[in-house]
Specification:
The chain is an all-alpha fold. It is 84% helix and 0% strand.
Length: 131
């Protein structure tokens, strides 16, 4: 921003360069341009505020259908969580790292063994039903 002393120097230079006849005309034009710029800024601000309010209204209009969709989903999620007394979070020990290949092979062998036992049990049940 210009200070008082700088403004006086600029005014004196303008008076010397333009003369006393052209200086008032130029000052009027500068004042008109300044008023036009302020009005343009005001118009732009009002236009942007109107657009923002339109966007807010659209957002509010979209919120109701979204709430209609998410409310039943939240109810289902709450019912699911209430039905499982353990909850959905892991309660076991936290591993320090992922499983090793040996752990994975041991798990695979345990799964295969369980499947074999289940198949044997099912065959026994089927044999009993056939008799």
């Amino acid at each position: 921003m210009l200070q008082g002393g700088e403004m006086i120097i600029i005014a004196l230079l303008a008076l010397v360069l333009l003369g006393p006849k052209r200086l008032p005309e130029l000052a009027r034009k500068v004042g008109q341009w300044s008023a036009e710029l302020r009005q343009a800024a005001r118009d732009i601000t009002q236009g942007l505020e109107a657009e923002v309010s339109d966007l807010k209204a659209i957002g509010e209009d979209l919120k109701a259908p979204i709430d209609e969709i998410t409310k039943p989903l939240k109810e289902i999620s709450d019912e699911f969580n209430a039905a499982d007394p353990r909850g959905t979070e892991w309660t076991g020990p936290k591993p320090l790292s992922g499983p090793t290949p040996a752990d994975a092979m041991a798990d695979l062998e345990a799964i295969e063994e369980a499947q074999t036992r289940a198949a044997e049990n099912n065959e026994g049940v089927l044999d009993e039903e056939a008799e």
